[in-house]
Amino acid sequence: MPEGERHGRADRGEVAVRRARVAAGGVVAAGALVAGGMLLASPDPAAPAAAAPVGATAAVEQRDLVDRERIGGTLGYDDQGVVDAARAGVLTRLPDPGAVITRGHSLYDLGDKPAAFLLYGSLPAWRRFAPGMSDGADVRQLERNLRALGYDPGTVDEDWDADTTAAVEDFQADRGLDRTGTLELGQIVFRSGATRIAEAKAAVGDAMSRGRPLASVSSTRRVITVKLDARRQRIVHVGDRVTVDMPEGGTARGRISDVGAVATAARDADPTIDVTVELRGKGARGTRLDQAPVDVSFAVDRRRGVLAVPVKALVARQGEGYAVETANGRFIAVEPGLYADDWVEVSGSGLREGMRVVTAQ
Fold it and tell me: Strand runs (DSSP E) across 246-355, as ranges?
């Protein structure tokens, strides 16, 4: 859907008007769509009608109104990256796209043996893990993972000691590896959590060299990326809640997790910023599609605790302005405010919460 398409917003020149009778003072309403607002002729919009109104009624409500704008985005996964071969060898196993690897399991096999194990952490593995290595936060990160997998590295700290070596040896033995107590650079891959294979970049049987890309990967967290016109950055804020029309139908809840600070532009296109939306709830788990187009509804304006009526309760007055008709046949002049979700904010003398107003047939 093109950017800028509004939903829940009524065109003020096309208000549905109900059928009524000729009232005292010459107030008339006809069942039609009014263009430009020139239907009611009443010197006194609060004058009572000659007879009771016909048609359904609705209560004037005090409610929150949110005007939303739909902007197209792309459904994908967060924390994208690439896994490279840790060493030279023949690729003998690579999980299929969509497979999810969890802590302690191998991402791929070389020469029919597990070659790289996934552990969780924010620090990259930048050196080999071995007895006698210097202290560091990466040692603590490794020991924390060993403990989570059921091995005992002793005190979880930044120091490599004999307990750490024993835990690594047990980790290796359970995976059919030699008990060396040493993990070579590339044998451990730290990522933020469970990792999804997104796309294979090599095939089983390929002769791999160290550093050759094997697969693109991501987290399992569903996100949407919206290319937003940079001039409209003011409508989005980290933490804002949004709704998403999912590709298979239905909607999902989301929250803006990141708003890009750098604008980019393709040739002959306006600059855009990336807005990242994190999906939440059951709707987020209802699809496995990747790179599918979706529509994201952003709140561009809101009113809290205002008096509102259904849009179809508005009656255009001759000349200009609007009114609502009460259940006892009186017309009250109102000033419309925000339109959202088939409701409109209204203000006017004599209008109060709970009052019944006539709506269009």
Answer: 251-259, 272-280, 292-310, 315-316, 322-325, 331-340, 343-347
